[in-house]
């Protein structure tokens, strides 16, 4: 069998559009001779909090509406308005989203994503955890996260222990992912990069598949 085609997937656990893309990406890895490398990055509100001070005030409401519409079209569950709790704790200051000082979720989720990829289960982890976040109220409580991680073939306790020891290294990986995304020519998520060509948005996945087929994409059991 030839070497698999490699896709870099830049991903934020706060993005509903990453969640909406993940089942299709996961199914590709099962069906086709491809390798997906999950490249977690921090959300825009963490990386560039000033962005929302300058953005059109209608942007957030439109994105929420569109995410609900896409979820309905794809037959995927979606919360009433947004993930609850939001993976990034935000405060509204004069109607503008501002990152709160205490962030108990997003750094942990992002570092867990890095570790999952290092253990060869990146896209499986993203599928299970993003589905939990975006379809379950109080997703952070009890054993729900641990069970989602286990469904991806991983151990949350072990991974949390690594985060405690290696938080600085993991942040370097996340920052390197962001630099790599910038070098590829984009800033947002989800972005799929194939052969240095970026494809932005869950609505570009059909185009990614089209490009892969131009490069000889075959199903996994084909020679």
TrEMBL record:
It comes from Cladophialophora chaetospira. Keywords: Transferase. It comes from the Eukaryota. Residues 7-210 form the DSBA-like thioredoxin domain. Belongs to the GST superfamily. Kappa family. SUPFAM superfamilies: Thioredoxin-like (SSF52833). Signal peptide: none annotated. Its EC number is 2.5.1.18. Pfam families: DSBA. This is Glutathione S-transferase kappa. The active site is at residue 15. It catalyses: RX + glutathione = an S-substituted glutathione + a halide anion + H(+). GO terms for molecular function: glutathione transferase activity; oxidoreductase activity.
